[in-house]
Amino acid sequence: MLYRFLKFTVGIGIRIYYREIRVLNQENLDHDGPLILIANHPNTLMDAWIMGHINRRRVHYMAKATFFNSPFKRKLFKAVGMIPINRKTDGVVSGINNRDSFEACYELLERGEVLVIFPEGTSYLERRLREIKTGTARIALEAESRNDGKLGIKVIPVGLNYLSADRFRGRIMAHVGKPIRVETFLAEYKTNQGIAAKKLTERFRAELSRVFVTMDDELKEKLVHQLTYLFDSRYSKEEEKGVEQSIGFLKQVQLQLDETTISSPWKLEHIQEQVDELVQSLNFYGIRPDFLDRPYRTSLYLRQTIQSWIFLLVTVPFFIFGFIHNALPYFGIDKLVTKLTKEVEYHAPLVVLMGLFLYPLSYIGWCILFNWLFDPNWLLMIIYALALPLTGLFAHFFLRYRRHIRSKQQFSRFAKRRSSVFNQLKTQREALKELIFNT
Q1: Tens digit of pLDDT for each residue in 94-105?
Q2: How confident is the model over 223-256, as pLDDT tens digits?
Q3: Cβ–Cβ contacts within 10 Å for residue 225, how many?
Q4: Which letter does DSSP use for residue 148 in this model?
Q5: Mind listing the domains of the chain with CATH numbers?
Q6: Which candidate, 328, 308, 351, places its Cα nearest to that of 170?
Q7: How far apart are the two ends of the chain, measured CA to CA in Å?
Q8: pTM
């Protein structure tokens, strides 16, 4: 009951915080037997919540023992399916025995349930797959060995690909890989446990690399993100839009640069120089790169701008209502989070947790005040209460849309008055694209 309640509540929080959560190959999770789900770990608690959110079945988690440092936390976390494990980097937490934790994992798999493990062991907000520990493979192999290979344990890799992971209204693509059957490694495990665990771990890493965009070079990672900024356009002719298209393009750029590194390494420096020059020019003129994909027509832009400003003017009352009623928790949470932690990996989960508490508390306060001032009937009270979160989201959209319209106006003036520079930027961008993708 507690698990379902928390899953529903936290699910609301992450659905509000992230504007798009896309799951690729969801059907790979639809198994009735024992499953171990492994995933990369860039975003601390948010990763665990996402794994629970995308699974129809109840999931259990292996978590670091430092979370269980009080009797209350132990009862709470165990009630929601968390299994503590002492890590070498954290030291031993009193009362937590790893043998008992492993035994709990074996029993869980023998009951045909789902276990989530983040085999990297640590969480950093980076697009990089760190060292995969062998513990996951040992748990899977030992559980299968204890039951003479009859459990049929499957290990499923899940790549958690975030865009703007620590920002409100970011996006996520969870890419579910193909199941890995454990029993194929069982014969070797019976003769040499260490080698079998290492081989299975290597398989885990290979499969996670297929579903997660991972980059091992910081300079190349920066270049990939710059190129994605320049070319991943909402106005492109691609039929597929959204986070899947963006992550797909990110992967495409990465693979292309990897190929260039092997075939023509000297080109990378030239590409970086052109990228820096183009980004600097766009920033100087205040032009968003995706606007370069739009054909400029004065009449079209004028009509769209007029329509947009009419929409903004008509909806100003809704914006003001939403802003007034949501500003305090919105800005308050942001300040509290920055004071509580400097680690960016904890930003998103802390914002969601605080939001689940502070927003309802704020809305209750506003409802009490509204009732005291106006003594409304029950229908008006319900409408007022529902309007608080809805207009809050609209207020955020309103501000983003206004910035978009201003950028559009700036681009329109630029394209009209400095058409030669505009065409030069488009040519420069196309030449860069040709250099990268037609090597």
Answers
A1: 778 889 889 999
A2: 888 888 888 877 665 555 689 888 988 888 888 8
A3: 15
A4: T
A5: 2-211 (3.40.1130.10), 218-284 (no CATH), 298-424 (no CATH)
A6: 351
A7: 57
A8: 0.90
